[in-house]
Design a protein that fits this description.
The complex is a heterotrimer of chains A (277), B (291) and C (266). With 291 residues, chain B is an alpha/beta fold. Chain B has helices spanning 46-51, 81-86, 103-113, 118-131, 148-160, 178-195, 206-212, 230-233, 237-242, 249-258, 271-278, and strands at residues 3-12, 20-30, 35-39, 61-66, 69-71, 87-90, 166-170, 198-202, 215-220, 223-228. Chain B has a domain at 247-281. In chain C, strands 1-2 form a two-stranded antiparallel ribbon. Chain C: Transmembrane (T) component of an energy-coupling factor (ECF) ABC-transporter complex. Unlike classic ABC transporters this ECF transporter provides the energy necessary to transport a number of different substrates.
Chain lengths: 277, 291, 266
């Protein structure tokens, strides 16, 4: 059964003319990684807020791990979801790294002995244990996001939602966080829903949902979606390097693969192609 | 206008327990009319460096030459204002500095501070708004109603309205979506090519450095560790790896292909350069042979 | 702004640094209370000796304390001048209209100055050696008895620790906005008062707008992490009362007794 099941979800902000999320329906199976992409203002972040009950939908339903999201069940639903937001500074609530990791557990009445153990485990998992006494002002954006991940891991959610979690980081911090998420997902069998316009993050997904003007306009595997080449820009994604290169080579009349290949496969393909010359 | 640093050192909070040296013996030249990229990790001193470009900070030791002005530790804080007009700085997330009731007024704020009449300031603002591609109907709106990408362009227009000779941009594409990033970079290159503006770009995007920059300054731990053309800076893969700096995607891919028996000389830094060298090494479509 | 030392924490591991924040808060309260009982040379001497002893135990260089006093210099001078000119009684040395310099005026000015300096220095010692967060923890713990009357102690403490957490962030932001506006030709600290007030607007508005946006983001993040109300939460941070804390507390109580005894000497 799907761990996230959304049907006919609609939400409109009070002052706006059109719904930010418009009749959206989708399922996410347990253990899957699903990316939601779309350019800025397409309704991606509104969707995230609806999923954790920060906003209440005008119509439609959300079921998380078999529980229908209602006003009464919102706190139970939040227990199963961990969320990492865009701005590293605005989700760091604790005065130090360790305090921040403990914050979610304090809210869940976890006893102090258990907290001490889990803070350590979580910080070791994200490689931030040696920074446990640091204040946020002395951490980089990427480090803060890793602490946010540790805070999520400490409360052992089933679902991890990333709301543009890497968009304010430098390339190094970005790949760092992405690798940490990959490891954690595998180890803890997490379901990941990532809202993003980062091509590398989207490439990690099993499926990509493209949202525009509050509606899903396409659902595809990364492979299939990246076939779109330069049209991806309109969907809020960059064109993958290998797709750009293939396009430029084709313009010169060079033989190119019929379908999208990632960088490693393209290098292999070109190597074999060269042998036929 | 040329800017050069002569053995510049800078300390934050000297003489306190929090004293910290952010720049060490920095000497560099930013040539007039060219596109200079400054790269380096977070905390390498890039942000401190750019605050010296219009004398927001004065060097603790050494001196900075901005056009015909010399700035050192003893320079008085008075009469620095003209420098702010010749060297415009677009800081990180510049949309955080917007404050006026309307977009147009916010863009006109800079010129007005330099004693331009309000009519002239409005004209300068309108022109700057056009340069960054803001639609006319947005000019009367509150800047806080705009989207993130639009706010970014308003903030850049607010600096362009000063008509600076040198434009400094600190990660101007951070946090934008791909379309927004492309728009900003197109604007910056246009300013350099069409108006011969001197551009200083701080960035983490090596692909942008390879594509647009004529000079590259690499900073690490408060010091300049390398300067030169993108070709020289990116030529030494081992050196870059030691400094944990990435290669541009095209160079990275070329290096990968080299291991498969392809040959590149010089190392291509952009997709176009890569394809130019790669195409002759590959068979043509439909089994034709390439000459 | 960065050179402002008053109220800052200076990392260290001295005897004073290691005291429990509750103990340090209590010591500070006792000391400040006792300062108002001091009335003669011997009582001030005792208080000064205790203060200097504490400063030495804190291992914070004296020049930093002096820097800490500097921003308060004008306030001190103003108070002293008022006391000198308006304090009356005893031998009159000089008079002009309502202004006079009298023996009693000089004495009370001296005492006020002394009290001010002692109070400022002991508070500075507290902030130099105690992390703001630890002070917040200490306050929460000392206010704990108020829970019985349903006073939201934990919520208050969380608010305090959150605001402390964001002080550096907001300071940083203020500096960035100031730099951005200076680059757009704003001249801080020049021109008349009206000009000065005008330069504040381009700083304050962005600062408020950003702080408000931040507050919205933070509250969403807190809710998403399961924060419902401040009172029913377990606590990760715990304070540890050690024998050194008891010893110093007893020491300060003895000092208080001595000061009250020495009052009789006049």
């Amino acid at each position: 059964m799907a761990i996230i099941s959304v049907s006919n979800l609609t939400y409109q902000y009070a002052q706006s003319e059109a719904p930010a999320v418009n009749d959206v329906t989708f399922d996410v199976e347990a253990g899957d990684w699903v990316a939601i992409v779309g350019h800025n203002g397409s309704g991606k972040s509104t969707l995230a807020k609806l999923l954790i009950g920060i906003l209440a939908a005008d119509s439609g339903t959300i079921d998380i791990a078999g529980t229908r999201l209602t006003e009464a069940s919102v706190w139970d639903v939040r227990e199963t979801i961990g969320m990492v937001f865009q701005n590293p500074d605005n989700q760091f609530v604790g005065a130090t790294v360790a305090d921040d990791v403990a914050f979610g557990m304090e809210n869940r009445h976890v006893s102090r002995d258990v907290m001490i153990r889990r803070v350590k485990e979580a910080l070791l998992q994200v490689g931030m244990w040696e920074f446990r006494d640091r204040e946020p002002a002395r951490l980089s954006g990427g480090q803060k996001q890793r602490v946010a991940l540790a805070g999520v891991m400490a409360v052992a959610p089933k679902i991890l939602i990333l709301d543009e979690a890497t968009s304010m980081l430098d390339p190094e911090g970005r790949s760092d966080i992405l690798n940490t998420i990959k490891t954690l997902k595998q180890k803890l069998n997490l379901t990941v829903l990532s809202i993003t316009h980062d091509i590398d993050e989207a490439a990690q997904a099993d499926r990509i949902l493209v949202i525009d003007d509050g509606r899903f306009i396409e659902e595809a595997t990364p492979q299939a979606l990246f076939e779109h080449g330069s049209d991806l820009i309109a969907m809020g994604l960059d064109v993958p390097f290998s797709a750009k290169l293939t396009e430029l080579l084709a313009q010169r009349g060079v033989a190119v693969p019929a379908h999208y290949l990632d960088e490693g496969s393209l290098a292999d393909w070109l190597w074999k192609s060269r042998l036929t010359k | 206008m040329e800017i050069s640093f002569d053995k510049v050192g800078f300390w934050y909070q000297p003489g306190t327990p929090f004293a910290f040296q952010a720049l060490k013996d920095v000497s560099l030249t930013i040539p007039s009319g060219q596109f200079t990229a400054v790269i380096g990790h977070t905390g390498s001193g890039k942000s401190t460096l750019i605050q010296h470009l219009n004398a927001l900070l004065k060097p603790t030791t050494g001196r900075v030459l901005i056009g015909d002005r010399t700035i050192d530790a003893k320079t008085s804080n008075k009469h620095l204002k003209p420098l702010r007009k010749t060297v415009g700085i677009v800081f990180q997330f510049p949309e955080n500095q917007l404050f006026e009731e309307t977009v147009l007024k916010d863009i006109a704020f800079g010129p007005q501070n330099f004693g331009v009449t309000s009519q002239a300031a409005t004209e300068m603002a309108q022109q700057a708004a056009k340069q960054v591609g803001l639609a006319d109907e947005l000019l009367t709106r509150s800047p806080f109603e705009l989207s993130g990408g639009q706010m970014r362009r308003v903030a850049i227009a607010g600096v362009l309205a000063l008509r600076p000779d040198v434009l400094v941009l600190d990660e101007p594409t951070a946090g934008l979506d791909p379309r927004g990033r492309r728009d900003v970079m197109t604007l910056v290159t246009k300013l350099q090519r069409e108006q011969q503006m001197t551009i200083v770009l701080i960035t983490h995007q090596m692909d942008d450095v390879a594509r647009y920059a004529q000079n590259v300054v690499v900073m690490a731990k408060g010091a300049v560790v390398k300067q030169g053309t993108p070709q020289t800076v990116f030529s030494d893969a081992n050196w870059l790896a030691d400094h944990q700096l990435a290669l541009p995607s095209a160079a990275e891919f070329a290096a990968q292909l080299s291991q498969h028996g392809f040959h590149f000389d010089p190392l291509p830094l952009t997709e176009e350069a890569l394809v130019a060298q790669l195409a002759p090494q590959l068979p043509l479509k439909g089994g034709q042979h390439n000459e | 702004m960065n050179n402002f030392m008053f109220g800052r924490y200076i990392p260290g591991n001295s005897w004073v640094h290691r005291l429990d924040p509750r103990a340090k808060l209590l010591l500070c309260f006792i000391y400040i209370g006792v300062v108002f009982f001091a009335n003669n040379f011997w009582t001030y001497l005792l208080l000064t000796v205790v203060l200097l002893g504490s400063i030495i135990l804190a291992a914070v260089p004296a020049r930093i304390f002096i820097r800490g006093l500097r921003p308060l210099f004008w306030l001190l001078l103003f108070t002293v001048v008022i006391q000198i000119f308006f304090g009356a009684g005893g031998h009159v040395y000089w008079q002009w209209g309502v202004f006079s310099i009298t023996h009693d005026g000089l004495v009370s000015a001296g005492l006020i100055l002394m009290r001010f300096v002692l109070i400022i220095l002991i508070s500075t010692l507290l902030t130099f050696t105690t992390q703001p967060l630890a002070i917040a923890d200490g306050i929460e713990s000392l206010l704990n008895p108020l829970r019985k009357v349903h006073f939201p102690v934990a919520t208050l403490a969380l608010m305090l620790s959150l605001s402390l957490r964001f002080v550096p962030t907001l300071m940083d932001e203020a500096t960035k906005i100031m730099n951005a506006q200076r680059s757009r030709g704003v001249d801080f600290g020049s021109g008349g008062l009206r000009q000065q007030i005008k330069t504040i607007v381009p700083i304050l508005i962005p600062l408020f707008v950003n702080a408000f946006q931040r507050a919205v983001d933070i509250s969403i993040a807190m809710e998403a992490r399961g924060y419902r109300d401040g009172e029913n939460r377990t606590k990760y941070r715990q304070l540890k009362w050690r024998s050194a804390d008891t010893i110093s507390l007893v020491g300060f109580v003895i000092m208080a007794g001595l000061v009250i005894a020495l009052r009789q000497l006049t």
